[in-house]
Please model this.
Amino acid sequence: MTTTTTGTTNGTTTARGSVGTAHTRVEGRDKVTGAARYAGEIPFAGLAHGWLALSTVTRGRVRSVETAPVLGMPGVLTVLHHENAPRLDSDYVGLLGVPPDPSAALFQHDRVPHRGWPVALVVAETSEQAREAAEALVVHYEQEPHDVAFSAGRPDAYPVDGHMPAVAEKGDLESALATSTVVVDAEYTTPEEHHNPMEPHAATAHWDGGRLEVVDSNQGTTWVAGDLAKLFSLDPASVRVRSEHVGGGFGSKGIRAHQVAAVMAATVLQRPVRVVMTRRQMFSLAGYRSPTTQRVRLGADAQGRLRALEHRCLNITSTVREFVEPGAAPARVMYDADAHHTANRVVRLDVPTPTWMRAPGEAPGSFALEAALDELAEKCGIDPIELRARNEPERGPVSGLPFSSRNLLTCFREGARRFGWADRDPRPGLRRDGRWLLGTGTAAASFPAGAGPSTAGLTAEPDGTFTVRIAASDIGTGARTALTLVAADALGVAPDRVRVRIGDSDFGPAMIAGGSMGTRSWSWAVTIAADELRERLALGADIPPAGITVRSDTTEAIGALAKKERHSFGAQFAEVAVDVTTGEVRVRRMLGIFAAGRVVNPLTARSQFLGGMIWGISMALHEEAVRDPASGGHVGADLAGYHVATHADVPLIEADWIDDPDPDDPVGIKGIGEIGIVGAAAAIANAVWHATGVRHRSLPIRPDRVLSAGTGAAHA
Amino acid sequence: MAPAPSPTHSAVTLNVNGEKYTLTVDHRTTLLDALRERLDLTGTKKGCDQGQCGACTVLLDGRRAVSCLHLAVAAEGREITTIEGVADGERLHPVQQAFLDFDGYQCGYCTPGQICSAIAVIEEHAAGWPSAVTDDVGPEAGPAPLTADEIRERMSGNLCRCGAYVSIVQAVARAAAVQAETGEAAEAVA
Model:
């Protein structure tokens, strides 16, 4: 299924066969037997249960919280709210360069900036008591008119930089469009989407000998520990966060209201307190991907070479924090043009603050851009893959920097061969299988390949084994197993001699599981530590009973990386069947071919790529959180109302990769967590056009949209 | 702290994985919470607490059930099997082994529910139960083969947000084949 890379590295290590070979997960047995304990499952003596009460108005002020009746209910220990909660300091910038989510700065004022804002925490002896009391708690509000209406025409939209400049412009766009032979001008929309990891956010906090201990479900223990120390003005060394097993994250599991609530209550009551979000609460407390409206204008010559490219993306943010979903980002990497304009803008509404969600920017942005490319291919009469080949840039279209590696066309060629693309008739609406119209589509994918500074500890034990300690987080990525393989190769030993311990902030600062950077960042730190340990052991020193431990820190090495365009790339292919009389769209097969760095563990990497592609199916056809403009809240904020792809929606899909080691990474890794979703929805939408002759520019492609769109004029 | 029976609490004996547990539970306590909070059987997961995700799937008298929608007091007298009870000692159940081998999971949180569901799916299919995608459900038709589409349809009550569906379907098919070969189909469903 895959190539085994023997490694282009900096010469510090050579592959010894574990990296690149399929290994089942080291914690796999615990996961299939139920022995793996997640955050809400560690027993504590004297545990109390907290239940958050959320605002039932969308904008206004809390006038009063009627605590007395609730305090008289059985088992209730306390009610925390803005008048009695410990004070927090939320005026800081955290590990990832952003302030904490506003909803994590619990109970500091009486303002309600959106529906589902946390207004109180009820703590009781049992979860049943806490829940009933929280639901019985009466909160009086001073209600104000709200605005949650999102549309492309908002006059109050404005550009926001985020992690990249909001606006990048070169060339004269209008004149380049005016002199182009072929022009595409289209608007695309994507809906509000929610991470919905299967494990709800859960934290248990307690004080132990002057130290705050928090067992939590998160994507980075040092990240959360650092935020808790800052919020509660504690010495960072006095906060320990552990997160052994994490039931999915996808960007939603950073510092959130549940941890802060648990710490507040544990501090007030001086006993362990657990706070778990309900599935419904997650819809307003756990972050989400903003809806977007995007306008793409492409101008090309008769041969399909781009002369003008404009991609403008608009997203929503809250009134209390700017968050930008940079949908225009992919255009800055993928295609060049004489006139190249991109912009990310936001509009502030009375809604919760959005956050990173799997492939932030790239997921919605690639839908619009790659669908527009397909429209251009149609108008030019050029095969969509050939169109992309004609527009391969030599350097970063906006940065002018060289690419560290760019194997996009290799992915397309390999994918086209395996998918059977060469036989495709480009005309839409021609293929039929009973009640189904059939079509195929393709799209390109890209995602930045980055690394964040990390530290690791590596111990040579007297019994000949090795222990890695790193504050990594395995949110389902297989990081624990990948690090075992990386350490084994770096040490030149078999993986069964390596024990990897993760998910503990006491192991020192480390990158989070996010941005497709986790495994790469941690592997780098482990590799450096292993190199040093091997040197120490080569001197023939006896190993004392406590072992020999070395520590590494990659801050300097990562800081020394030359500035380049560093990305993973991929080609997505989809075949769909559309029944225009019921509106049903079924994905029949998908293939993704990726150039995403060296693959550490083919077994788990395949799972991750496939998972991303399934997110693409879900994004294309199912997911949509609907906000009611009258109430300002969601309609159907649960897994019955918010559809994610399930077994029956997912056919046999395939993911594979080409040899693409990163030349500047000690292990050759680029990162694979996100690229699987990028372009996947566009490939499906392009296939729906090929099946029906109708462009669906708004996601998800719901049955009602298919029904009302029909099959287009040519085939009506 | 074990509360005494009262107008809001009752003593109940739960038969879980072949062991009897007698405890006093709040009448509001779901079977899921009783397993997790009172019996420390945390393998059964809480994904939504309202019967929409399947993470809390257990076997009740051999049939799959979402334990978040059952009250503990109503589970007395039932044979309850959780993920902790499906292996034969150290030897994994064929479904567990197949999930491990095929990487039929990522974060692992939906996994116990998927496995409990899959065990029942294989038995339901072996017992001749049709599904919504079974072509011929006539009395003469006989059991349909357990195709990938049959597995997908029958497993669709168990959500996996990581998107491990492709491997899960392969794992269930392999486990069904292994069980058919070894005649290890366990107790058939009623």
